Amino acid sequence: MIDYTKESKLSVKSAVEKMQTMEIMEKTFDLESNDIALYLAMSKRAEEEGEKEIAAYLFNIAMDEASHAAQFAALLGMVKDTRTNLLNMLAGEIQAEKDKSDASEVAFGEGNDEAFKFFEKSMKDETRHKEGIKKILSKLQAKD
Ligand SMILES: [Fe+2]
Ligand SMILES: [Fe+2]
Q1: Residues with CB in 5 Å of ion ligand 2
Q2: 17 alpha carbon to ligand 2 midpoint, in Å?
Q3: Which residue from 1, 76, 100, 121 lies 20 to 30 Å from 7 (Cα-Cα)?
Q4: CATH class held by domain 1-79
Q5: How much distance in Å is there from the Cα of 64 to the middle of ligand 1?
Q6: How far is ligand 1, taken at its centre, from the CA of residue 114, in Å?
Q7: What is the dihedral of CA 72, 66, 60, 82, to 10 degrees?
């Protein structure tokens, strides 16, 4: 008689391990992504303080974190074929544009002028991203 117990235990164990690895990679992706933004901001600060070498070093570390995050994004299956990626990005940019608009109203209402101005500025960037992705998509479509 074949004993399936050991095998089924093994497959449950590997499923759990896989789940844990996926969860750890998701968390790592978030942490690496946060580091990119923070290190870029710190690099900019070092630049403003006249510390050009430190600024360049922090910028390089930020790019390393970006490359780590990108690799985890790929391992997590977040990267699809280019057309699908562009469609997903478009949805994200449309949402980001709306979120920035809502956020700018909140900041305005609270009298936080600096935040208001930056939400407005970054909203325009999201609009530009949205329009750019739309153009690329229609060029891709024309190829068909
Ligand atoms: Fe990293
Ligand atoms: Fe964007």
Answers
A1: 93, 126, 129
A2: 35
A3: 76
A4: mainly alpha
A5: 6
A6: 31
A7: 110
CA terminus-to-terminus distance, the chain: 57
The amino acid at residue 130 is: K
pLDDT tens per residue across span 102-123: 999 999 999 999 999 999 999 9
Residue 51: phi and psi, rounded to 5, are -95, 75
User: Per residue in 1-28, pLDDT tens?
Assistant: 555 555 556 566 777 777 799 999 999 9
Q: How far apart are CA 72 and CA 28, in angstroms?
A: 8
Q: What residues have a C-beta under 5 A from ligand 1, the ion?
A: 32, 65, 68
For ligand 2, the distance from its centroid to the CA atom of residue 54, given in whole angstroms, is 28
Angle of helix 4-48 versus helix 52-75 axis, rounded to 10: 160
Neighbouring CB atoms inside 10 A of 52's CB total 10
